[in-house]
Amino acid sequence: MPRVTMTVNGKPVSGEVEGRRLLVQFLREDLDLTGTHVGCDTSQCGACVVHVDGHAVKACTMFAAEAEGADVTTIEGIAAPDGTLNAIQQAFQDHHGLQCGFCTPGMVMSAAALLAENPKPSEAEVRDYLEGNICRCTGYHNIVKAIMAASGQDVNAIAAE
Amino acid sequence: MPKDGGIGAASKRREDVRFLTGTGNYTDDINIRGQAYVHFLRSDVAHGRIEKLDTAQAAAMPGVVRIFTGADFEDVGGLPCGWQVTDKHGAPMQEPGHPVLAQGKVRHVGDPIAAVVADTPEQARDAAEAIIYDIAELPAVVDMKAALDPGAPKVHDELESNLCYDWGFVEENKPAVDAAFEKAAHVTTLELVNNRLIANPMEPRVAVGDYARSTDESTLFTTSQNPHVIRLLMGAFVLGIPEHKLRVVAPDVGGGFGTKIFHYAEEAFCTFAARALARPVKWTSSRSEAFMSDAHGRDHVTRIELALDADNNFVALRTDTLANMGAYLSTFAPSVPTWLHGTLMAGNYKTPLIHVNVRAVFTNTVPVDAYRGAGRPEATYQLERVIDKAAIELGVDPIALRRQNFVTEFPYETPVAVTYDTGDYNATMDKLEEIADLSGFDARRKESAKRGKLRGLGVNTYIEACGIAPSNLVGQLGARAGLYESATVRVNATGSISVMTGSHSHGQGHETAFPQVVADMLGIDESMIEIVHGDTARGPMGMGTYGSRSLAVGGSAMVRATEKVINKARKIAAHLMEASEADIELKDGQFTVAGTDKSVAWGDVTLAAYVPHNYPLDEIEPGLEETAFYDPSNFTYPAGAYACEVEVDPETGKVTIERFAAADDFGNVVNPMIVEGQVHGGLGQGIGQALLEGCTYDENGQLITGSYMDYAMPRADDVPFYQVDHSCQTPCTHNPLGVKGCGEAGAIGSPPAVVNAVVDALRSGGHDITHIDMPLSPSRVWTAMQG
Prior knowledge:
Number of domains of chain A: 2
CATH architecture of the largest domain in chain B: 2-Layer Sandwich
Order of helices and strands of chain A: EEHEEEHHHH
CATH topology of the largest domain in chain A: Ubiquitin-like (UB roll)
Shape of chain B: globular
Structural class of chain B: alpha+beta
Strand order of the largest sheet of chain B: 3-5-1-13-10-11-12
Oligomer: heterodimer
């Protein structure tokens, strides 16, 4: 089997992968980074979003072999080394932007990509950007609110927490 | 001032930290050394006879451990149904068998035919494709009315027909109801469909079976809302494993919404195969597999009639419903269209005479069972739609018509067998009018019109029965289970506490909210309390989480157990302070002797309980751990009023939700942040049902909506920010916390609000439309507008 080498959350990793092995399988099963989730098989739900070379990617839509040499960041790699949540993670907790937690890794990684390209998104821009991330628990209210709060916007005017 | 701890505080969720850092422990994250993987070969036809099933070639493929078929399960029980409905003639429902793997016949697309266990998932899948099989296709029944035609193909050959039961409720009232209709000044009739839905928790189901030959113990890790129930059903009825040799663990579970209540074939298979092979066996559902194997929800077709007198008082209500059971009876399926639906047909109104008829029908589709709200959304939708239609026909204000007929005195005994203990429906309607700014609607409608859009307002109320349920009552109604809940409060020597609850959290935040209750009772910090759930080996028998029961029933058990702890702790404190127990007061984590400055801290008492050197050993045992089982004396009755404003684009029929407001009465609230989140989520699902979601089969029983490519899940840009309020609080009168439950309200109350709003919008544009069936897709709305 071909060997693939990449950087994941700042650490060099490598492994032997079948050609059909998806990046998400490589992360979850070979590297035991189970924070990245699989919620569908049609690349719709976004629970598996990770960053590849700084871009948000659905890890179910990319072969592990395609990530050869890439710099991959997963949900496990974004808090501070001492475990302190980053601003987006903290905003999700502060504003109850998660319930069952299953879509959450993908939501947080998508939100990070959004704020990297648009530091002060409007409500409509947040909702539009999340088109590829499905949440069944929150009705999206607190997710949108958390992302706007993480961008430094005042969300107090938005209906109740 | 917001509280910063205890009951009423918006405590931040402690479980969030692991979910936000990717360190949760969902079932698919569990891998046991040496595990094999199973792939199910599933029927691709809706109805057929298995003529040939040859696994020899597939069994020889690389990595295959063993291939199982229905023949391997001939000596194993079928999947049990947990509720027996008695029909209106006194006969029990028709109850077909439900094998783990198909035996001779397949009855829906997705019915499992064979199971390949192999060293890797890929090998299992590859080998499943190599199984040679031949299914002689039989005509499928999909449409419920057609399924009841004499001569229709039968889903189960051994049954008389496709009718599961014909239920009348309350049957003795029928003559009086019919007589009231004869005399009514006005009768409004509406035929409607409550669309079939797929629950779609974001985590697909997973099962990992394990077996230790050395101890003869089986363990099942599964995505369940109620691991003890699975242990009982699977152990006692399917596999014959006694409870002490069977452990069921439901760790972090990624949403349930009802569909993870039920006992599924894949759970029994993995447990069975792990024993047969003495090797762990894992199954992870793909989403496509979930669409054809998770129990579906709703799927009712109803004709409802409302009779009014000359003063617009509701005098009688009559319904006739067909309810789809699918191909087999899922665990609680028979209860949903009957006891969870018929008993709510009074709604918030004092209609004196009600008759509900429900015929449950077998079809060649995936089994249908409880989905968020379960029966109560179906009841609310019919009632709140027919009331709006009556208001149109009578030319009266729909809110005034509702207010005129509200139940205003409590307790209120409905004509459909339940007694509402408390409520204030005018208060929630008043609050709704305020938070939804209904007085500003006309101005907003004019503004929409300027942009060429039709704006509509839909208002409705809802009531639901939560806190399921009094065991003696549900036993009479056919439940084959009790519906109490348990809690063990284990106080450790240093004063920290582990609370073992039979409830299960799969998004509801129990790990945060439950400690708020115990901390409040003891006057200690929430952080000293840990919630343990989801493992039959770690807590007493419990019935799990559904029907908004966790706090109302499970929380009440926790209160009772904590009261026992306090009673014992007071005895210890009295001994330590050489005082009379009657004089001991507990406040802020300190035991004091009333009227003195003598006190001992919580930690001193707990340490004494486990290091009983100075201890009343002749009166009480050492240790501080108490268990309580709480069985509610009634359901709880959350209620509220919802308002939806939509804009309809007359060019395309596209509906957008512009505003949505919900005024709920949940009784007392423990964590308002979590409560509001629950309402938001319910609203998202209800709006999804109203506008987007609909599970569709073709006439051959092929599932058309088999993936997220075809089944429209609500996305962030389909919904607005919601305005929610829970300040109207009439505490439940019969549980110690005064709580009612909030998990399903949003999904129950919102669909009629959306449809009422769209109808209002279209009528404002001159379209003489009184109803459109959900989901209100652009094509349906546009077609309706074309007349």
